[in-house]
Amino acid sequence: MQDTWETLLCECSRCHECALGQTRRNVVFGTGSPTAEIMLVGEGPGANEDQQGVPFVGRAGQLLDDMLSIIGLDRTKVYITNIVKCRPPENRDPLNVEQDMCIGYLRRQIGLLRPKILVSLGRIAAMRLIDGDFRITRDHGKWYDVDGMRMMAVYHPSALLRDPSRRPETFDDLKSLQREIRRICSRTELHCPWRAAPADK
Ligand code: URA
User: Fold this and answer.
1) CA dihedral in degrees (20, 25, 26, 28; nearest 10)?
2) Residue ranges of the chain with per-residue pLDDT less than 70
3) Any residues with CB less than 8 A from the CB of 54 and at least 6 apart, and which?
4) Is the C-beta atom of 46 inside 6 A of ligand 1?
5) Element housing 61 (H / E)
6) Is residue 130 within 8 Å of residue 151, measured between CB atoms?
7) pLDDT at 167
């Protein structure tokens, strides 16, 4: 049977395949446009996300919104989700076994969205989606061709909150992302007001 967003959401919302299903308040499935050409993938929900059922709504989410706006994007033009859909307790990294149980939902989301560009937010997503040996300090901002998508990773917004010295590199990565969007995402309009109108003569 053909997969749909509705059946996938329904299955995922009822999931108890791993122990995270016992401690979560809400499954955090994903948010954004189901026709987006760009997908962003974090590692897993934190406390705020667990409470609201929406990815990236805490401080890291605010920074992610700022990162998107730097390149003329907002949440309505992308699709945002995580490797695991339920909150790991104490904000620890999701265990491999939890990722293994959950990754099928992400694969199906990718199958439905068929994004042209997939951006991993941080190391955990990059190791799972791009390369098991991915090192975020070494490999952020590099482009990879994986399963017909252009993929890159940037520092996780939480890492940028902890270590603001990474922000200039991230700005460069975002500009590279912007160039790639302009090159291959014909349906994605970037809204950059500061360079829209030439001054009146
Ligand atoms: N960090 C993540 O990786 N995902 C979220 O949804 C929130 C914080």
Assistant:
1) -50
2) 193-201
3) 28, 31
4) yes
5) helix 59-70
6) yes
7) 98
CA dist., res. 198 & res. 201, Å (int): 9
State the distance from the centre of ligand 1 to the C-alpha of 201, rounded, in angstroms. 47
Q: How many CB atoms lie within 10 A of CB 96?
A: 10
Which ligand 1 atom minimizes the distance to the CA of 49?
6
Instruction: Show the tokens assigned to 29.
Output: 């499935």
Of 42, 69, 68, residue with least CA distance to 56: 42
Helix (H) or strand (E) holding 152: strand 149-154
44 CA distance to ligand 1 centroid (A)?
A: 5
pLDDT, tens digit, 9 for 90 and up, residues 91-103 = 899 999 999 999 9
Report the pLDDT value the prediction gives residue 1, as an integer from 0 to 100.
85
**Is the distance from CB of 56 to CB of 64 less than 8 angstroms?**
yes
156: left (phi over 0), alpha (psi -120 to 50) or beta: beta
Element (H, E) at 31: strand 31-32
Number of other residues whose CB lies within 10 A of the CB of residue 22: 9
Atom of ligand 1 nearest to the CA of 60: 8
Q: What's the pLDDT score for residue 192?
A: 80
Written in H, E and C, the secondary structure of 155-200 is: CCHHHHHHCHHHHHHHHHHHHHHHHHHHHHCCCCCCCCHHHCCCCC
Structure confidence at residue 195 (pLDDT): 60
State pTM to two decimals.
Answer: 0.95
